[in-house]
Structure formats: structure tokens, C-alpha cells
């Protein structure tokens, strides 16, 4: 038997980290170049981060390292692991999360040599210039597959690579993506120069990982389930027929039309409505049909892959939504559909007969067999829905000798309260010590958390994502052989999802080979230039900061906006305030209300826009409405005439200019140019500092009256002029209200109804 060798390093505790060839190989390149490391779960991604931190801190003893993880529990887990292995004083390893107030965060940052953080907190602190990353020698990005789109990792990496010198970024993930474009996006966003990947089958990794037996079990649905499914599909067909007649699809067979097609058709119809000056009325009807279809397809999926209890609860919620005063016509029509009502009746009969999905009985049998074979087993069951997790927990507790516990996320959903981080931690600890031996988890159990290695993992339903497949499967087979079982209901979406995941995982392996090629290409480029040039690339000199640096006040709700991030890239000095008026203040006279095209459309519908424009104009000499999006008309089903009316009202009635730009970068460039001109050329200060002056009494009265049904700012002025004050207006009859120009009988009746109806809070 060979002698165990340990890593020896001044900053690593003696005899704590066992030498592994693949880790040594990876760290050898990871300390030279920004590296994306793809490793299976359970083979020591965190150890590689520890080795990289030890290397950098020894090389740059006065520098800092930051370890980023997407959730606080994972941050705490990394902090504990680093403390277990590194010879760095514990007082120099600081946890910095959103629960710490900003002033304290700055203090902890200054005290730390290794900071463990969530990306949202670091992003916020960078945007507000609470501290910088100039002295950072290592940035570790865990769960790096998240570094796409607007996720905080993208902005942080950009700032780090731009401001720190030297830089070293280590990105870690078990599963980047099954799409090459997404992998390239991650590589570009994180400035990756080197890719190190290993699979369970890699020659240098395989000796450390025991085998995992992966299997699927076919489930046959009972005949009564098919009756309910046929009833639901009749409801689906009645909505597909008019969509087919309008030539959006070539079949009305529910089994030949997918949810993806319905979503695509819905977008196409909305686009036609938005770009047509006078859209045909039947298009609005088709949009309503699409909305109903999406709910009906979901009903079928719940029935076939989850069970009657899950479907029953969903239908109860749908009926409840339909009774709300603001329920859409699509939901109201759906609730009144005779086919759906028949399905509800059939479901009630199944529940009364004690018939559930056959998967439940299969789960009971699987758990009993596993515990009979290995009584000390730890079993993890994954399910998509909380209701099903609750039912599984109850069924296993009453039908088996197991000790199950439900494990869900922090958010509460309706009357289903989520688990706090403390409660999650306590459950995981009890799962480790055997108080519980079956963990019934939703997606919260897939990523990041330090969960006891399981002997058996069961998928209650198949998942179409290769990433989720790998993450779930990674809960077993780390130190001893594991087993994974996927339950697949025959003839249902389960089958499609199962094969989609398998196909995508195969595709991912092919992409990993492509990534290897990318690594070789990068290596070739390195050899063509000196190491010194590579380690110390020439960077363009940044303009020196002066006392005249542009400042912009930003509302704290816009802190994560893409516009705000783009302003930071332009090195604008951002001052964050809670603004009561506007989103960005550029000087003592210029304020900007910023909206995406979708938000602009929604603000027209809920009448927010006109109130915002009124208060903006009331408080700033030069107000501006800035709309970001390629098209003002293509983002929503709102009638184009309403959009044009809102634009004309903004310009004519409120005297607020409207500017439409294509993307956040263009929006930021415009704000920067205006602010620079105001502050540099015209020497205008930012006197308000984001604080709205007290509204005049007239403006306040207009604001209150404008909240009445059908009343805008213009009508509120007319009403107040007619009645003199709000008290007299409220006491006016419907007939008296109707005498005001622009109100009319119908609107007057709605105003009286809103004023007279007894308040009943919605549940």
C-alpha cells in the first residue's frame, strides 16, 4: 500500500490536503492564467481554490483574495473549508453578505485578506464605490455557469480585470452548459484564457470516483388518468382550432403541438398586434386562447408526471384567480370551460377513491428495498414541486420505515412557508447524523449546498436540463458506489425530458472536447508571445480622475440595472439615494425616468406613467423620459394607438421629452453626455442629491385625484377646478361628476363605485 502524500505549503495546514495528480495539473496552469475549471461534483473544486489562494497570497502577501458563491449557505461552506485547510488567521478571513450593513461591510473588507462574499453584495459595493478591487490578486467564481446575461458575476469580472494588476481569476463549475454559444459567453464574460476540464471518465480522475449505476424505471399510468387527460385535451383542442384557422399552426391535435410552439405563436400574434395601427379584433382573442392553452398544457403535465393531488391544487388556485376582480378574460373563460369542469369532477372522484400517481407506490417500494438492503443508507428524492415534496414526505412517513424530511427554498409561496437558512442548515445536519435518512428536495438541493453523500438518488420526474441532471446525480457516488433512479411515466412528457437530458449531456461531452481544442488553441497563442507579455499585458491608460468627474445620483432600486452598470463602466461617480422622483438625477434641473420598453407599456396599462411624469415635471426644470428597447411597439400586446397616445401626452401634456435608445450602453452614454455637459459646461450642481422637494399642495391634490379610476392628471385638474377641493369631490354624486368634461356617466359611475365599495382585502 502506497504512502499517502500531502500538499506541503507554508499557507496550507500540514497533512490536511492529500496530493492528487489532476489537482496538481490543474493548479499548475490555474496560477498562470485566468482558468475555467470543469470538474465533477465531489472531486475537490474548493481545494483547487484553496491552493490558488495559497499560491497568490505567498506571491503577493499584501494582497487580497475574494471567494464568490451565489448563496449565503455556500459562502459559509467555503469559509469553513478554507479555515479547515489554510494557515491564515481566522480574523483575516471575513464573511461579507447582504445581512451586514454597508458601513460594516467596508470595515470587514479592509480587515480581510480572504473575503467570502455573494456576488450581489460585491456588485452593489463596487457600484457605490464603497471599496475597489485594485489590491485583489485572486477572484474565485464558484458555480461559474451563472456568468451569463445580467448576473452579477459578469459585471464583477469586468471591473476586476479592468482595475486590478496583476489579475488572476479562477472559475469553477461542474457543468457549464450544453450549448457552445453559452460556454463561449461564459469564457468571454470572465476573461478566461485557459480551460481545464475533467469528467468522471478522465484517466486522472476516475481512480478517485466510485461507479454510479444510472437507471430509469417505467411507470404505466392507470386508465382513469387517461380519461382525465382526454378531457383536458378536448379543452386544448377547442382553443387550437381557431389558431389553426388563422394559419398559425397546421394541426389542432394537442399531442402534435408543443408548449414551445404556443409560446412562439403568442409572441408572433403580439408582434402583429403591436405593429398594426388597427389590429383585427380576432388577434386579441387568439392571445387569450394562447394564455389558456399554456395553463391547460400545464394541467396535463401535472396529471401525467405529478399526480391528482398536484393537479387538484392547481385547479383550485385557477378557480380562485378567476374569482378575483382583476382576473383576465383568459382565466375567466378557462374556469368556465365545461371540459375543465368535467376534469375537476373526475379528479375529485380519484381523490375520493384514494387513487394517486403510481410513482408514489414505486417510490415507497424503492425506499423500502434500499433500507432493507443497507439500513444506514441516505436517500435523496428530487421533485419539481413543493406540493409533491410535501405529499412524498407524508407518504413515506406513513408507508415506510424511513425518516423523511422535506427540503425546500427560502421563499414562501402562498400558504407554504419557505425554510430559513438556519432551518435548512439544521435539516442538513440532521440528515448527516441520521435523524432523517430521506431528504425530499426541490431544486434547492441541486446546487452548491454541502449535503451528505447519498447512497441513492431518485428523480420523481425527469428533467430536460443536462446541468440539473449532472447536479442531481452528483449527490451520490463520491466516496462509495452510488445509484440513481429516474421515474418515467410512459407516453408523457417525462419520456421527452429524459431523452432530452441524456442527449444534452452527450452534447456537453462533445462540447468539452471542443473546449479542449479551445485550450490547445490558447496554448498555441501563448507560445507565440513571451510569458512576461502574457502576465503583464499592455493596457490602455485610464483617464485621470479629476475634481470634475461626472456624478450621477441613482435611485437604489436601479442599482442592479444594466444602465447603472454601464455608467460604472464609464467611470461615472454614482451616488445612491432613495429617490421619490425619477431614477437618475444628472444636475439640479435634469432628472430622468428610465424604463424598458416592456415597463413603459405596463406603466401605460396601470397608469403609473402619467403620475410619474407629473411629479417629474413638477420637481425638475428639465425632465426626461428614457425608454430602452429596440421597439416601443414590439414588446407588448398593448395597442400601438395607446403607445402613441402616451408618447404624445408625455410631450404635449406634460412637456417631458421622450428618448428611445436601443440598449443600456447607449442609454448610459446619453446620461453621461448630458450629465457631463450640465456639470462641466454649465457648472450645474447636483443640489437635490436625490431628495425630492416637498410637493406643492396643488400637485399633491392632483396626485391623489389622479389615482381614481379613469382619471389622469388633466382630468384631476378639471375635477378639482369644478369642486374646489377633494372633500367636495368625494361627496359629489355620479350625476355631478359626469358633468365634468371628459368624465361621462360610465367613468363617473366607476369613480363612485371605487369610493363607496366596502374594502375587502384580497387573500
Keywords:
Rossmann fold; phosphoenolpyruvate carboxylase, domain 3; seven-stranded parallel beta sheet; alpha/beta; six-stranded parallel beta sheet; 763 residues; 19 strands
Task: Please describe what this structure looks like.
The structure is a single chain. By secondary structure, the protein is α/β, with parallel strands linked by helices. The protein has five domains: 21-208, Rossmann fold (3-Layer(aba) Sandwich); 212-218 and 358-499, P-loop containing nucleotide triphosphate hydrolases (Rossmann fold); 223-352, Up-down Bundle (phosphoenolpyruvate carboxylase, domain 3), CATH 1.20.1320.20; 551-681, Rossmann fold (3-Layer(aba) Sandwich), CATH 3.40.50; 697-756, DNA polymerase, domain 1, CATH 1.10.150.20. Helix content is 50%, strand content 12%. The strands form three sheets. It has a seven-stranded parallel β-sheet, sandwiched between helices. Strands 8-13-12-9-11-10 form a six-stranded parallel β-sheet, with helices on both faces. Helix 1 packs across helix 2, helix 8 (223-245) packs antiparallel against helix 10 (281-306) and helix 9 (259-275) runs antiparallel to helix 10. The termini are far apart. Residues 527-546 and 689-693 have low confidence and may be disordered.
Amino acid at each position: 500500500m502506497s504512502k499517502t502524500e500531502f500538499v506541503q505549503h507554508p499557507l496550507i495546514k500540514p497533512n490536511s490536503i492529500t496530493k492528487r495528480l489532476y489537482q496538481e495539473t490543474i493548479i499548475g496552469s490555474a496560477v498562470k492564467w485566468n482558468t475555467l475549471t470543469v470538474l465533477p461534483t465531489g472531486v475537490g473544486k474548493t481545494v483547487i481554490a484553496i491552493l490558488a489562494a495559497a499560491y497568490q497570497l505567498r506571491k503577493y502577501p499584501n494582497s487580497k483574495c475574494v471567494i464568490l458563491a451565489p448563496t449565503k449557505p455556500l459562502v459559509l461552506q467555503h469559509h469553513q473549508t478554507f479555515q479547515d485547510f489554510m494557515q491564515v488567521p481566522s480574523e483575516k478571513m471575513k464573511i461579507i453578505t447582504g445581512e451586514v450593513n454597508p458601513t460594516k461591510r467596508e470595515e470587514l473588507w479592509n480587515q480581510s485578506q480572504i473575503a467570502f462574499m455573494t456576488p450581489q453584495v460585491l456588485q452593489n459595493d463596487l457600484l457605490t464605490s464603497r471599496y475597489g478591487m485594485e489590491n485583489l490578486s485572486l477572484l474565485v467564481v464558484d458555480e461559474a455557469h451563472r456568468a451569463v446575461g445580467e448576473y452579477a458575476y459578469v459585471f464583477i469580472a469586468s471591473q476586476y480585470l479592468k482595475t486590478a494588476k496583476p489579475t488572476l481569476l479562477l472559475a469553477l463549475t461542474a457543468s457549464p452548459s450544453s450549448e457552445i454559444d453559452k460556454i463561449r459567453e461564459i469564457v468571454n464574460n470572465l476573461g478566461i484564457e485557459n480551460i481545464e476540464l475533467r469528467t468522471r471518465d478522465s484517466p486522472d480522475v476516475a481512480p478517485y470516483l466510485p461507479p454510479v449505476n444510472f437507471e430509469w424505471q417505467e411507470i404505466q399510468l392507470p386508465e382513469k388518468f387517461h380519461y382525465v387527460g382526454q378531457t383536458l385535451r378536448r379543452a386544448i383542442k377547442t382553443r387550437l382550432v381557431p389558431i389553426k384557422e388563422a394559419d398559425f399552426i397546421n394541426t389542432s391535435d394537442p399531442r402534435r403541438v408543443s408548449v414551445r410552439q404556443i409560446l412562439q405563436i403568442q409572441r408572433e400574434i403580439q408582434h402583429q398586434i403591436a405593429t398594426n395601427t388597427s389590429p383585427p379584433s380576432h388577434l386579441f382573442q387568439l392571445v387569450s386562447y394562447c394564455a389558456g392553452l399554456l395553463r391547460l398544457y400545464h394541467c396535463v403535465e401535472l396529471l401525467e408526471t405529478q399526480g391528482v393531488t398536484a393537479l387538484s391544487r392547481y385547479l383550485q388556485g385557477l378557480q380562485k384567480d378567476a374569482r378575483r376582480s382583476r382576473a383576465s378574460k383568459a382565466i375567466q373563460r378557462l374556469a368556465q370551460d365545461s371540459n375543465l369542469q368535467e376534469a375537476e369532477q373526475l379528479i375529485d372522484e380519484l381523490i375520493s377513491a384514494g387513487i394517486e400517481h403510481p410513482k408514489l407506490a414505486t417510490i415507497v417500494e424503492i425506499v423500502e428495498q434500499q433500507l432493507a438492503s443497507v439500513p444506514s443508507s441516505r436517500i435523496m428524492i428530487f421533485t419539481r414541486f413543493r406540493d409533491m415534496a410535501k405529499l412524498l414526505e407524508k407518504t413515506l412517513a406513513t408507508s415506510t420505515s424511513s425518516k423523511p424530511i422535506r427540503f425546500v427554498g427560502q421563499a414562501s409561496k402562498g400558504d407554504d412557508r419557505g425554510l430559513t437558512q438556519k432551518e435548512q442548515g439544521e435539516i442538513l445536519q440532521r440528515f448527516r447524523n441520521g435523524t432523517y435518512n430521506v431528504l425530499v428536495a426541490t431544486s434547492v438541493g441541486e446546487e452548491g449546498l454541502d449535503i451528505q453523500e447519498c447512497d441513492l438518488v431518485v428523480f420523481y420526474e425527469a428533467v430536460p436540463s443536462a446541468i440539473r441532471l449532472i447536479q442531481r446525480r452528483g449527490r451520490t457516488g463520491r466516496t462509495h458506489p452510488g445509484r440513481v433512479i429516474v421515474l418515467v411515466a410512459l407516453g408523457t412528457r417525462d419520456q421527452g425530458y429524459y431523452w432530452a437530458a441524456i442527449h444534452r449531456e452527450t452534447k456537453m461531452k462533445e462540447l468539452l472536447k471542443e473546449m479542449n481544442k479551445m485550450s490547445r488553441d490558447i496554448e498555441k497563442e501563448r507560445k507565440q508571445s513571451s510569458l512576461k507579455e502574457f502576465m503583464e499585458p499592455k493596457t490602455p491608460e485610464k483617464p485621470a480622475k479629476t475634481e470634475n468627474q461626472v456624478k450621477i445620483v441613482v435611485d437604489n432600486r436601479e442599482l442592479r440595472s444594466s444602465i447603472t452598470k454601464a455608467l460604472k463602466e464609464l467611470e461615472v461617480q454614482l451616488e445612491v439615494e432613495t429617490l421619490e422622483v425619477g431614477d437618475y438625477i444628472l444636475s439640479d434641473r435634469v432628472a430622468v425616468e428610465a424604463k424598458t420598453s416592456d415597463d413603459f407599456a405596463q406603466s401605460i396599462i396601470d397608469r403609473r406613467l402619467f403620475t410619474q411624469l407629473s411629479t417629474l415635471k413638477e420637481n425638475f426644470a428639465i425632465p426626461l423620459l428614457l425608454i430602452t428597447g429596440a421597439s416601443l411597439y414590439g414588446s407588448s400586446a398593448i395597442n400601438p394607438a395607446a403607445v402613441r397616445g402616451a408618447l404624445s401626452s408625455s410631450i404635449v401634456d406634460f412637456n417631458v421629452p421622450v428618448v428611445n435608445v436601443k440598449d443600456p450602453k447607449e442609454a448610459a452614454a446619453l446620461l453621461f453626455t448630458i450629465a457631463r455637459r450640465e456639470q462641466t459646461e454649465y457648472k450645474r450642481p447636483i443640489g437635490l442629491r436625490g431628495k425630492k422637494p416637498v410637493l406643492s399642495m396643488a400637485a399633491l391634490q392632483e396626485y391623489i385625484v389622479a389615482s381614481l379610476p379613469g382619471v389622469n392628471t388633466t382630468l384631476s385638474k378639471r375635477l378639482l377646478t369644478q369642486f374646489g377641493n377633494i372633500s367636495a369631490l368625494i361627496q359629489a354624486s355620479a350625476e355631478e361628476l359626469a358633468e365634468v368634461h371628459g368624465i361621462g356617466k360610465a367613468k363617473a359611475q366607476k369613480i363612485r363605485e371605487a369610493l363607496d365599495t366596502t374594502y375587502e382585502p384580497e387573500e
